């Protein structure tokens, strides 16, 4: 065992040094380390098996075993570990129950992004070492302090139980599973361990001119540099990197803002040798803010004479940044509604919430000989590469983004907002690597989910047939346009696609306010419009005395019909199968009937009911004016086939799925194919991982590349087309041709690349039934069961698909019932992970995943995407279930106990309408 020193200053040995045994390696502390968090000390010593999701003691992701007892290393002083034995996931999984647990977790369906897993492994191993006879309740209790944003916890609990029982699961192991379980997988934070620490400087007021001077920050030992607005290049950029459009994605950001547009806007950066020194520097920087008039709500932003949220946007007449309309003209819709025998109008309000992937977004940059290399948590590496080069005035060939796994993304990592700061800082520090990662609280002030109001009016015939529909939307963009234009566009398009009407229109606007910038989130636009539309339809069905399933069946779009938005013939849409499966599954799993009381409950206290909703999402970013595309490469490697893509895996298992696609197309077992995420500069062109496009776009590109590889091999060998067979014994054989088998080694290096262009948006449909219990005394809302049905065309990886559904449904429950990102006077309140209230194990209900499909989706695979779908319809189904249980229509998410109780006590008083909610456009 060797001892390594970790500390900032030399001090007397007898008082200053302590030793910690970390996974069998001795780490000696300097005195200045003793008060620092143990997690920082370990990571500074290169221990990457300890992750730091929150750094606030909330998530359990940094858990290590301190002399056998689980502790959160981010809030444990290093001094507490002096002289003790620290075990991380690395040693815990090396042998014994921990090794069994790691094997179980590595299976598909048990884990996803893996960022929470090393901490969970440590707590679980402690439990397994104490006792072997575990049940689910015991495991849940032991892991109650751990947060996982991806899995819905089901796979984790199952893995612990299997490890305890010694009954291995049946699902195959993920390619990245073992590294996630033992903590050895190197995320962005684990690259270049000796990188300088870049700590963001952020604004304190909702709208202000800001100057940043070093003050005496550079006197701090370990200080390296201070950057402020004066160090930013003149070029501006949009954090939404997808489109070149001055309206949808305007160049509105400086790298460091001189005009801060919300509390928490990025105004500068301090760079230091250590995190501790960076914090000290940030406290000493002279940051002066000159307040400007602010519009803190949508109502204020739309008022006459409102303060301008972005004073530099002289192209805007006010604070309405984006205004879009689709469908019939307004006069035609008004006339159709006026002529309809029955009209119904409803309004919902979406309150902002956190995005909350457990891995925070981060960027690490370094320069060498005029070339910039970035390790970024980006979901879109090639897009960011292009944008970053443009911003820095460089040829794209001199910028590269290196591949890293993502610890979750859920849309936030589509944005480019840290890479420019890291690149500038590194260049300013002589090319030394600089790593920029916001603290959890900074992230809570920087980004949130969209808020808004949606009003729908339907005009119906006497028999309930919907004749006309008008949809009006106001989104709160926050201080930047960012993704708001695309979120609004997606929302409006989906408003008119699933239930076509003869005369329909969807119009809306995204309004700038001096509040936290709104960012992309899983199913953006889709979940918001689904909440509005499916609660509206539920009320319509009641009004006409229709069964809710049959009412939807009567109006929904079907395969073979024309997509009313894009005029495409819909290739695949198994709506009737979805509704049939929902009805059948619902009957089989009916909750306690309404009005009945469960054992142990006070009579009359809990009210039970069921609700359903349908939804549609797109799985390709194609539209009438843009066609989404992807490329992939397959090559023959020494040990098997290698699939190359630039698409990152953010936990959904797309890498395992792409490898399985190639294996299926080549007729090989999955273990014969490995997936390699290539650097952005070298990889085939592909926009990345977002909008559930991985299978539909990149998957089909991989399938095509696999076929081309076979054709290329046949050509090389002079065999007729369609005769070559790859075999698992490492040889290539020809069917119906008199040719000797050829060893794979003769073809090593053979490459084929292929691309696909989506001719439609791969519309996916699904439905869910939710059973709830509502506590009439407290307003507590408990989701007891969910049946979640999805048409994905064809299911490629059942275990991964189920994992996506379970995790997505729990995320939908969180969005609908607990998660929040409130503001007060422009000041964000819920900036810490604890306050944001993402679901714990305690909230996870029984979830049944059902897959249907016609396998008729375009492309070789006959499959569509799934990633975003499972959460999209859940809030609407919960609201409909509450209506069923209580007779009260809740129209605001999140449906917190306060709102539920207020509605129960006074249904006439709308608990959902915020005082400042604006009138629809
Ligand atoms: S990182 Fe320590 S509890 Fe979250
Ligand atoms: S797998 Fe738990 S946070 Fe992603």
Automatic annotation (TrEMBL):
<dbReference type="InterPro" id="IPR001041">
    <property type="entry name" value="2Fe-2S_ferredoxin-type"/>
</dbReference>
<dbReference type="GO" id="GO:0051537">
    <property type="term" value="F:2 iron, 2 sulfur cluster binding"/>
</dbReference>
<keyword id="KW-0408">Iron</keyword>
<dbReference type="InterPro" id="IPR037165">
    <property type="entry name" value="AldOxase/xan_DH_Mopterin-bd_sf"/>
</dbReference>
<dbReference type="Pfam" id="PF01799">
    <property type="entry name" value="Fer2_2"/>
</dbReference>
<dbReference type="InterPro" id="IPR046867">
    <property type="entry name" value="AldOxase/xan_DH_MoCoBD2"/>
</dbReference>
<dbReference type="InterPro" id="IPR008274">
    <property type="entry name" value="AldOxase/xan_DH_MoCoBD1"/>
</dbReference>
<dbReference type="InterPro" id="IPR012675">
    <property type="entry name" value="Beta-grasp_dom_sf"/>
</dbReference>
<dbReference type="Pfam" id="PF01315">
    <property type="entry name" value="Ald_Xan_dh_C"/>
</dbReference>
<dbReference type="InterPro" id="IPR006058">
    <property type="entry name" value="2Fe2S_fd_BS"/>
</dbReference>
<protein>
    <submittedName>
        <fullName>Putative Xanthine dehydrogenase molybdenum-binding subunit</fullName>
        <ecNumber>1.17.1.4</ecNumber>
    </submittedName>
</protein>
<dbReference type="InterPro" id="IPR036010">
    <property type="entry name" value="2Fe-2S_ferredoxin-like_sf"/>
</dbReference>
<keyword id="KW-0479">Metal-binding</keyword>
<dbReference type="InterPro" id="IPR036884">
    <property type="entry name" value="2Fe-2S-bd_dom_sf"/>
</dbReference>
<dbReference type="InterPro" id="IPR002888">
    <property type="entry name" value="2Fe-2S-bd"/>
</dbReference>
<dbReference type="Pfam" id="PF02738">
    <property type="entry name" value="MoCoBD_1"/>
</dbReference>
<dbReference type="InterPro" id="IPR016208">
    <property type="entry name" value="Ald_Oxase/xanthine_DH-like"/>
</dbReference>
<comment type="similarity">
    <text>Belongs to the xanthine dehydrogenase family.</text>
</comment>
<dbReference type="GO" id="GO:0004854">
    <property type="term" value="F:xanthine dehydrogenase activity"/>
</dbReference>
<dbReference type="InterPro" id="IPR036856">
    <property type="entry name" value="Ald_Oxase/Xan_DH_a/b_sf"/>
</dbReference>
<feature type="domain" description="2Fe-2S ferredoxin-type">
    <location>
        <begin position="16"/>
        <end position="92"/>
    </location>
</feature>
<keyword id="KW-0560">Oxidoreductase</keyword>
<dbReference type="InterPro" id="IPR000674">
    <property type="entry name" value="Ald_Oxase/Xan_DH_a/b"/>
</dbReference>
<dbReference type="Pfam" id="PF20256">
    <property type="entry name" value="MoCoBD_2"/>
</dbReference>
<dbReference type="GO" id="GO:0005506">
    <property type="term" value="F:iron ion binding"/>
</dbReference>
């Amino acid at each position: 065992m060797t001892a390594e020193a970790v500390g900032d200053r030399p001090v007397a040995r007898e008082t200053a040094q302590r030793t910690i045994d970390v996974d069998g390696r001795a780490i000696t502390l300097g005195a200045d380390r003793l008060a620092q968090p143990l997690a920082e000390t370990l990571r500074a010593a290169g221990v990457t098996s300890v992750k730091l999701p929150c750094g606030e003691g909330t998530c359990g992701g940094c858990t290590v075993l301190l002399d056998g007892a689980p502790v959160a290393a981010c809030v444990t002083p290093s001094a507490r570990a002096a002289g003790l034995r620290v075990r991380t996931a690395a040693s815990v999984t090396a042998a014994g129950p921990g090794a069994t647990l790691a094997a179980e977790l590595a299976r598909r369906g048990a884990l996803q992004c893996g960022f929470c897993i090393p901490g969970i492994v440590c707590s679980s191993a402690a439990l397994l070492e104490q006792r072997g006879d575990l049940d689910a309740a015991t495991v849940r209790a032991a892991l109650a302090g751990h947060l996982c944003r991806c899995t819905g916890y089901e796979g984790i609990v199952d893995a612990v139980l299997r490890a305890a029982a010694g009954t291995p699961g049946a699902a195959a192991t993920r390619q990245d599973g073992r590294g996630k379980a033992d903590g050895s997988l190197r995320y962005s934070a684990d690259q270049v361990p000796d990188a300088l620490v870049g700590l963001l400087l952020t604004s304190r007021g909702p709208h202000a001119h800001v100057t940043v001077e070093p003050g005496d920050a550079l006197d701090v030992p370990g200080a390296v540099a201070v950057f402020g607005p004066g160090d930013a290049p003149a070029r501006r950029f949009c954090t939404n990197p997808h489109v070149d459009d001055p309206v949808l994605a305007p160049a509105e950001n400086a790298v460091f803002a001189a005009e801060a547009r919300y509390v928490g806007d990025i105004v500068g950066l301090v760079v230091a040798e250590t995190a501790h020194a960076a914090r000290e520097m940030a406290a000493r920087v002279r940051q002066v803010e000159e307040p400007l008039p602010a519009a803190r709500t949508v109502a204020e932003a739309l008022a006459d004479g409102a303060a301008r949220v972005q004073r530099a946007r002289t192209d805007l007449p006010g604070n309405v940044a984006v205004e879009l309309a689709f469908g019939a003209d307004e006069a035609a819709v008004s006339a159709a509604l006026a002529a309809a025998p029955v009209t119904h109008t409803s309004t919902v309000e979406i309150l902002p919430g956190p995005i909350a992937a457990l891995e925070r977004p981060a960027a690490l940059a370094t320069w060498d000989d005029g070339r910039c290399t970035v390790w970024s948590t980006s979901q879109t590496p090639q897009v960011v590469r292009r944008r970053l080069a443009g911003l820095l005035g460089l040829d794209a060939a001199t910028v590269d983004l290196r591949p890293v796994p993502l610890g979750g993304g859920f849309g936030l990592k589509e944005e480019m907002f840290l890479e420019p700061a890291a690149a500038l800082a590194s260049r300013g520090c002589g090319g030394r690597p600089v790593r920029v990662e916001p603290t959890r609280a900074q992230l809570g002030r920087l980004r949130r989910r969209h808020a808004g109001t949606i009003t729908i009016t339907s005009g119906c015939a006497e028999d309930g047939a919907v004749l006309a529909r008008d949809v009006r939307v106001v989104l709160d963009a926050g201080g930047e346009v960012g993704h708001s234009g695309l979120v609004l566009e997606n929302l409006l398009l989906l408003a008119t696609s699933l239930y076509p009407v003869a005369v329909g229109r969807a119009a809306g606007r995204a309004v700038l306010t001096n509040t936290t910038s709104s960012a992309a989130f899983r199913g953006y636009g889709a979940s918001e419009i689904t909440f509005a539309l499916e609660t509206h339809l539920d009320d319509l069905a009641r009004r006409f005395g229709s069964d809710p399933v049959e009412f939807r069946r009567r109006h929904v779009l079907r395969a073979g019909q024309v997509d009313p938005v894009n005029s495409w013939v819909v290739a695949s849409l198994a709506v009737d199968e979805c509704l049939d499966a929902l009805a059948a599954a619902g009957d089989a799993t009916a909750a306690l009937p309404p009005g009945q009381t469960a054992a142990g409950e006070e009579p009359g206290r809990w009210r039970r009911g069921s609700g359903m909703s349908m939804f549609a999402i797109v799985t390709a970013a194609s539209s009438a004016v843009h066609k989404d595309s992807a490329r992939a490469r397959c090559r023959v490697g020494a040990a098997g086939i290698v699939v190359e893509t630039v698409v990152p895996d953010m936990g959904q298992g797309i890498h395992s799925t792409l490898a399985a696609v190639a294996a299926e197309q080549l007729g090989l077992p999955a273990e014969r194919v490995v997936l390699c995420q290539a650097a952005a500069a070298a990889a085939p062109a592909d926009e990345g991982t977002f909008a559930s496009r991985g299978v539909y776009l990149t998957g089909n590109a991989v399938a095509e590349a696999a076929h081309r590889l076979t054709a290329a091999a046949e050509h090389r060998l002079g065999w007729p087309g369609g005769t070559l067979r790859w075999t698992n014994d490492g040889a290539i054989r020809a069917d119906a041709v008199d040719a000797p088998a050829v060893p794979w080694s003769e073809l090593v290096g053979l490459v084929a690349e292929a691309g696909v262009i989506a001719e439609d948006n791969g519309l996916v449909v699904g439905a869910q039934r939710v059973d709830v219990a509502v506590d009439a005394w407290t307003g507590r809302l408990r989701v007891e069961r969910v049946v979640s049905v999805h048409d994905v065309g064809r299911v490629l990886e059942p275990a991964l698909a189920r994992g996506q559904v379970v995790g997505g449904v729990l995320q939908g429950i969180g969005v609908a019932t607990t998660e929040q990102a409130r503001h007060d006077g422009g000041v964000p309140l819920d900036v810490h992970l604890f306050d944001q209230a993402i679901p714990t194990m305690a909230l996870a209900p029984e979830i049944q995943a059902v897959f249907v499909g016609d396998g008729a989706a375009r492309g070789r695979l006959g499959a569509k995407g799934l990633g975003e779908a499972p959460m999209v319809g859940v809030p609407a189904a919960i609201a409909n279930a509450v209506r069923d249980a209580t007779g009260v229509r809740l129209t605001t998410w999140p449906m917190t106990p306060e709102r539920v109780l207020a509605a129960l006590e006074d249904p006439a008083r709308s608990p959902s309408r915020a005082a400042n909610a604006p009138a629809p456009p």
